[in-house]
Design brief:
By secondary structure, this protein is mostly helical. Helix content is 69%, strand content 0%.
């Protein structure tokens, strides 16, 4: 049968992608003429429906624009945090955050990371034999740096909320480090005084409340804003791959959490206490990713997490936590091959 010219033109435009917004009936007629089914183009339809919503896309662009203006290390951390938060909201079935709220959170995260980096720099510069009373070996510097960041977190958390508990939490942190018996009291006092001094200095100068600018200044009239270059396109592709990987990984972890929840039910753990064990699932997966085939280091990290004194004081049974870890690691290693490739290099 001879097809009219208008029909030939319409089919040609449809096949070459030049027909904008074809109707569902037209697509159905085309598939029927080709003796095909909708299942034959299911992958194309799924790919289209899984694209971010308009609000998500606008938020991605706003955060990407902010990341481009930040130092590389801070920008990378802000980008990773934003991706994880967005993936978690999508997985939990929540609506996308408004662009302004999402950008504000990214600016706060950027400012917090920048302040932590400044603190770590000043801590590293002050770790000398004269100040510490001990040779600043790598182990000593690592313990003191972790201790300093712990103090910094306490000072930030108690700045506006529960300030009356600040001294108690600081003393607990001191007792924790001194109990490790890795560094002398002089080094502990030096780091504590330095952290408190830096925090007070930033608080008085208003640095703790300062955020990166929301937008870059407008371009003078007559200057054109350039289009996305190859580097920006690579960034967009990388973000999509990370989004896909994190979505699949979050779904996998939730699947393991359901199995752990069933194990806890069989062990007679009350629902009110199951969160103490369910919260460890993601950490055990992180241990598996971080240490890989380094079995001794992985076992050491597991033992340290299972026997954490604070968690034990709060009522978590180390033996049951170890069984949860064994189940989590076994199932995670079994299911990990089903994940898409991780675009981020292993550190």
């Amino acid at each position: 049968m001879v097809v009219p010219n208008s029909s030939q033109s319409l089919v040609s435009q449809l096949e070459t992608g030049r027909l904008r917004n074809p109707s569902l009936r037209l697509i159905a007629d085309y598939l029927r003429a080709c003796e095909a089914r909708f299942t034959d183009i299911a992958d194309i339809l799924d790919k289209y429906t899984s694209r971010p919503t308009v609000v998500e896309k606008q938020g991605d662009e706003a955060v990407a624009e902010l990341v481009d203006r930040l130092p590389d290390e801070v920008g990378r951390r802000v980008e990773n945090y934003d991706i994880k938060t967005t993936v978690r909201r999508r997985f939990e079935g929540k609506r996308p955050e408004p662009v302004r709220k999402r950008t504000l959170r990214a600016r706060k995260v950027a400012a917090a990371f920048a302040r932590r980096r400044e603190l770590k720099t000043r801590l590293g510069q002050s770790m000398i034999l004269k100040n510490l009373g001990v040779v600043p070996t790598q182990v000593v510097c690592k313990e003191l740096s972790d201790y300093g960041l712990k103090l910094w977190g306490i000072l930030n958390r108690t700045r506006k909320d529960r300030p009356e508990h600040r001294q108690e939490l600081l003393d607990e942190a001191d007792a924790w480090l001194i109990g490790e018996k890795v560094v002398p009291d002089k080094a502990v006092r030096h780091v504590r005084n330095l952290v408190v001094s830096v925090f007070t200095e930033m608080e008085k100068s208003g640095e703790l409340d300062r955020l990166p600018p929301e937008q870059v200044p407008e371009q003078p009239a007559g200057k054109r804003v350039s289009c996305k270059d190859a580097r920006q396109l690579q960034k967009d592709d990388f973000r999509q791959k990370v989004f896909k990987y994190e979505s699949a990984r979050s779904a996998l972890i939730e699947r393991i959490r359901a199995e752990v929840k069933e194990l806890l039910r069989q062990e007679g753990v009350p629902e009110s206490k199951s969160s103490r064990y369910l919260s460890t699932v993601r950490h055990f997966c992180y241990i598996s990713d971080w240490f890989g085939e380094d079995i001794p280091a992985r076992e050491q990290a597991i033992e340290k997490h299972v026997n954490d004194p604070r968690s034990v004081r709060l009522g978590r049974d180390p033996e049951l936590a170890r069984r949860v870890g064994e189940l989590t690691l076994r199932r995670y290693e079994e299911l990990k091959p089903t994940l898409p490739p991780n675009p981020r290099p292993r550190r």
